[in-house]
Specification:
Structural class: alpha/beta
Distance between the termini: 34 Å
Number of helices: 6
Largest sheet: 4 strands, parallel
Mean pLDDT: 83
Helix content: 40-55%
Strand content: 15-25%
Low-confidence stretches: none
Length: about 120
């Protein structure tokens, strides 16, 4: 059986993090996670120097991830942790809802159960 095709997504909010270790650390962790879990990492898209409070449509990397997912190109998206996806819980949940609708799983390297029944998340949903 072929490994599931997945995309990675990384983001840092400041230019200093772009040239530092932020993106590299996230990308390596995503690559290791995919390998450990038998997933086929197609590529990793990034938003460099972009605030997590910016809307999804303002971040080119995340917009491309969303488009690939909605078009059925991948079965899962791997992020380092949820705040790399968005700082705002409402934005996180909107993105997660889009992914659920598309049948695409969102996986976090550092948070094992991001689609949990946490009371605040349930209230937002």
């Amino acid at each position: 059986m072929a490994a599931r095709r997945v995309l990675g997504y990384t983001r840092v909010s400041t230019q200093e993090q772009v040239t530092g270790f932020g993106l590299e650390v996230q990308a390596k962790a995503i690559k290791d996670y995919a390998k450990t879990n038998g997933l086929r990492l197609v590529r990793t898209l990034s938003d460099e120097g972009q605030s997590g409070s910016n809307g999804i449509e303002k971040r080119i990397g995340l917009a491309r991830v969303r488009e690939a997912a909605m078009n059925g190109e991948v079965k899962a998206i791997i992020i380092y942790r949820l705040d790399r996806l968005a700082r705002d819980l409402g934005l996180q949940e909107m993105f997660m809802a889009d992914m659920r609708e598309a049948g695409v799983e969102v996986l976090s390297v550092t948070e094992p159960d991001i689609d949990s029944d946490d009371g605040t998340r349930v209230l937002i949903r």
